[in-house]
Amino acid sequence: MTTTANHPVLVLGGTGSLGSRTTRMLRKLHPELPITIGARDMEKATTLAAEVGNATTVKVDIKSPDLGLDPGARFSVVATALRDHSLNTLRYAQALGVPYIALSDGVFELGPIVAHYAHHPKASPILLLGHSNGGSPTLAALHFAQEFDTVEAIEVGILFDPGDPFGAVSGKDLERIAKIGPLPLVKEGGRWQWAREPLSKRTITTVDGSQHEGHAAGLQDVLSLGSATRAARVRIDLAAGLVASTKQGQGPSNEVIIEITGKRKSGESARFRYELVDPEGYAAMSARGAAVAIETLLGLAGRSSPEMGLFLPETLIEPAHLIRRLETFGVTVRAA
């Protein structure tokens, strides 16, 4: 494979909420890493490139098989902070022989990518990262699960504040999944199920003790958590409401509540609660997860870069590394 960190990381959709934040996170993690911002709005791209430094810009047309890019262009990773129904971005990355990150697919939308991989298993790596918050809650939950001998249930709840700069692309992704997707996927009683009411709803108790009605979401987190553990109950639920920081006049943060039921290695059996609080909101935590994924694919996180394969984040990224990165970025990680 031709991957090398000497070539720039190509961030497609690089001026959007998620793409621009991912670019900034990468720059914080790796000041010397070259980055190319792929976008349609060249004015925004140029401004962002000047802000982060050591960055170039390209105008991208995802309807074109070559994305409208110079045939001589070379990149180290292709990250898509946009929705590509054509898979042109995936084919482009694999033509270059570099890793590809898909950030927007719901669980019911994985068929085309999986089929592509089945026909091209020896091409460059594909990372499925259509998880909440760039995979951060999933990896954090699996990090905490290492404290357990047995895990019976993993339940993730995310509270969105109305004032959180959610990001147009992320909003459209969730809207699309809710509109055209099947019922949300959960694991209940050891069986995968498309959840109808009342199973599709549950009450989430947030950081300050407030209770909100949560709705199960068809995100890839359930696939990761349900396959990486033997938990008989796995779900991720989204709720909307004022977060604790907003009530305190500090602005909207992103609250992630992780509850694990099981028996700890210390012998305690109960339902244990953990919290992630990102003071910069949902899009920021999503970008942190994406940036950690990119550095891992580049071999810059203590592991060598994979040569080929189809990955979920937990099969590639060390959960403890993700936790350390979140704490470095100012995310609160705590057992509640």
Write structural notes for this entry:
It comes from Nitratireductor aestuarii. The protein has 336 residues and is an alpha/beta fold. It folds into two domains: 9-132 and 285-318, Rossmann fold; 134-281, 2-Layer Sandwich (Dihydrodipicolinate Reductase, domain 2). The protein is built from ten helices and 16 strands. The strands form three sheets. It has a seven-stranded parallel sheet, sandwiched between helices. A hairpin with a 4-residue loop joins strand 13 (254-264) and strand 14 (269-278).
List its traits:
336 residues; alpha/beta; Rossmann fold; Dihydrodipicolinate Reductase, domain 2; 2 domains; seven-stranded parallel beta sheet; seven-stranded mixed beta sheet; NAD(P)-bd_dom_sf; Saccharopine dehydrogenase
Q: What topology, given as strand order, has the largest sheet?
A: 3-2-1-4-5-6-15
H and E string: EHEHEEHEHEHEHEEEEHEHEEHEHE
CATH level-3 fold name of the largest domain: Rossmann fold
Report the radius of gyration as a whole number of Å. 19 Å
Largest sheet: 7 strands, parallel
Low-confidence blocks of residues: none
Q: What structural category characterises the helix and strand content?
A: alpha/beta
Q: What is the element layout, followed by pairings?
A:
Blueprint: E1 9-12, H1 17-29, E2 35-39, H2 42-52, E3 55-59, E4 77-80, H3 88-96, E5 100-102, H4 111-119, E6 126-128, H5 136-145, E7 148-160, H6 168-180, E8 185-188, E9 191-194, E10 201-205, E11 211-216, H7 221-228, E12 233-240, H8 244-247, E13 254-264, E14 269-278, H9 282-297, E15 310-311, H10 319-328, E16 332-335
Parallel strand pairs: 1-2, 1-4, 2-3, 4-5, 5-6, 6-15, 7-12
Antiparallel strand pairs: 7-13, 8-9, 10-11, 11-12, 13-14, 14-16
